[in-house]
Description:
alpha+beta, 3 domains, six-stranded antiparallel sheet, globular, two-stranded antiparallel sheet
Amino acid sequence: MNTGDLTISKATLRNPHFTVAERVALGKAARRVVPRQRHAEYSPAADRPSPVELLEGQSQERVPELVPIRYGRMLATPFTFYRGAALIMASDLAATPTSGFQVQCCGDAHLSNFGLYASPERRLVFDINDFDETLPGPWEWDVKRLAASMLIAARNSEFPRAVQDRVVLETVAEYRRRMAAFATMRNAEVWYTHFEVEWLMPRLKKHLGRPMRRRLDLLVAKSARRDNLQAYSKLANEVNGEQRITSGPPLVVRLDELDDVAERQRVRAYLDRLLDEYMGTMSHHSQALLRQFRLVDIARKVVGVGSVGTAAWIALLLGRDGADPLLLQIKQAQASVLERFVARSSYANAGERVVAGQRIMQASSDILLGWLHVPDSVTGRPTDYYVRQLRDWKGSVTVERMDEEAMTVYGRLCADTLAHAHARSGDRIAIASYLGRGDVFDRALLAFSLLYADQNDEDYATLREAARTGRIEARKGL
């Protein structure tokens, strides 16, 4: 094969067995088709959908009484708006240039969707931790969503303009450098790579001042305590000698308290069957563990920002005794926001799509990950769910409390893990070749982020106006 004559086609990109030289040539050929400077481009289309209309469309498929909570959380700041605006940005990104290389995308790779959690080996690791929108797609979309989130968060913290630029440039440069490093590694080495906190801590601390080092120590210590026992102590209590989830409407509503009596009865009647279906999607050794627990209670729980309004449940199970709890989150999975703009998911069950994407992108995943489908006769409409542990040493940074250096370091860490996730599923050699060694792509994404942060401000103002005029109802403070 003459690599000098390589042209990019779908057939070319599907071939995973080109030589290293051929894959390098593919990346360089893509530069000629889509120069890296073009990633600076963003301008709203003349027929751009209204952001409020897109959000209202999503609300049609959500629990009606929870939708005002979603709007209220999005209206807290332009950054919280951005967190809930994955569909809006996906619609905008669909019109932007791409190099043609596909990866398993996160679909919502903003900086608050990275964090700490426990690996199956009981080590604290850092990685992407939200996969509701995961789907194969252009790698640039994830990087642009991360870069723009860094700028919007830096603006929200009122950092000087030069610092805002530096945060974005450092984030994108780290993605480029890390992808270049992965391009030199053997395939298995890439998959075995993971970011353990023990290894990360000294490397992070040398870039941070004393106050942020103390906060980092506290975050790690707190994350290691956020397990099922800690969640159990906060979310459950004893009622008439039985362990039950603690009610806290409207954020936590036990099954027995749901207003819809028919739904309550349907769900209760099918619970054992649904748990059996979920168990059937797990590995045999995980099934052996879960069989040692019994279900004692279930409640609906509001989670996140963008996810608010989707059906999300927590299930309380007990093992050997009342001091051996297991809390599971059963979260509704819908079509990825990317599916309107790329090929539809190959999975019939959206919950399986989430689990499969998470296992591809994460270095270590929850051993209790699984999925299920609730038929129409149970809840009144067919619904897909994925299931995971509610808390397993989970921890995330408070973006608003990060100083300038901390946000820069954090952006690089997010970029490291995003590059790793993309390197596991995409052609890391071709992508690294396309990015090159200089900062051309970095500066293009800074220009894009500046334009998109302005767009985000406009969309945030539009949603505020919709709330002011009564078009939407927003409940703040929940």
